[in-house]
Amino acid sequence: MLSEEMLDIAEENLQAHIEIEKEEEEIKSLINPLQIWITSASAPTCYHLIPLLANGEVFGMTTEISIHLLDTDQFTEVLCGIVMEAEDMAFPLLRSISKHTEIEEAFLQADVIIVLDDILFKPEVPLLEDCIREVSEVCRVYAHLIEKNAKSGVRVISAGKTFVNLKAMMIMTYGPSIKPENIIALATFWESAAKATLARKLNINAAGVKDVIIWGNVTGWSYIDFSHAKVCGYDSAIWGPPGFSRPLCNVIYDGQICSEFLSAQSSLSSREYHCVGMSPAHAVATVLRYWYHGSPPGEIVSVGILTEGQFCIPEGIIFSMPVRFQNGSWEVMTDLEVNETTQEILGLLTHDLIQEKLVALKKIKEMRPYRDGKITSKNICFKVVLSLSNK
After folding, report:
1. Which of 211-225, 247-261, 265-279 has the highest mean pLDDT?
2. E strands, 262-339, where?
3. 26 phi and psi, to 5 degrees?
4. Cα distance between residue 59 and residue 67, in whole Å
5. I need a surface site. Which of 29, 164, 214, 267 has the fewest CB within 10 A?
6. What pTM does this model have?
7. Beta-carbon neighbour count of residue 307 at 10 Å?
8. What angle in degrees, to the nearest 10, is found between the helix axes of 265-273 and 188-202?
9. How many C-alpha atoms does 186 have within 13 Å on its Cβ side?
10. To the nearest 10°, the Cα dihedral for 121, 126, 128, 130?
11. C-alpha span between 110 and 157 (Å, rounded)
């Protein structure tokens, strides 16, 4: 064989070897599991969330995941119990589950981070400003570790019962290298609660209520908007094929909606305050599924995102508004019509979030008081419903 022929064959072998290596790397990347980190993992929400994440419905039936539970030393035994139970269930797609109590190792190679941290209200009733500062300090630590340890495309969901918008805002502020579009505040829990309340009044399945919008501060002053809501399966003179829906305003009067919703405020509030975690866990799993695989066509999903002037809302705050998920990202449904009443309410809700941001960033001494200047667990339970009645 001539040298020239041998060199040609050697070149072909080299190219074939390079292509084989690339294919092996691609296969390995598919095999590598998604790294899911959950903070305050001793919370009941985390306990109910793990099976939802591991059964394949959220990330896909071919995607393996590794779950990392992060909490303080005092909850080590709780975390060990959760890890043991999850391992005993032998989920095919759960590659591993581990506990972490050292903050320095938090969020290593994270693809998804679910922040469940909440302010624990004590009998002495803390000042609102002190609560905001405490939340800000926790988020400052988290943001630094996310920038340091997590993957560049990490997705962060701020959830929990308190200061959901503020947590997302502070992580975004203290972690400027984290993509703003990858940080959202969870509003789906309240959206689902409002749908369920309406469904009970109309005697239909809660899944038959669509397009209820949560505006504003998810766990603060917010507005539940029924103007675009639709109802499927309502027993009336007008019927249609499966999937046929009617505008809610054609089913019951607006005044009746408000009064009936407010009459159920005690049950809705107690569900949030005494919640065992199933509904919040389902809300987290639902939003993650939409984020990865898209939301149902035409349906509205409420999510707290960084504003860019949509609906005449000032830029630079985390505000819950209607979005749709598609192709691994979300977009605001700016084509929705907003009536004058709702627009006026949005202006009032904006002030609440701007005040929170000012206290957190500038630590100002004078701020708009929250009722008598203090925040209580009772106020936390009822604030979403009170916002509807006050407006």
Report:
1. 211-225
2. 301-306, 318-326, 329-332
3. -65, -40
4. 13
5. 29
6. 0.81
7. 18
8. 140
9. 28
10. -100
11. 12
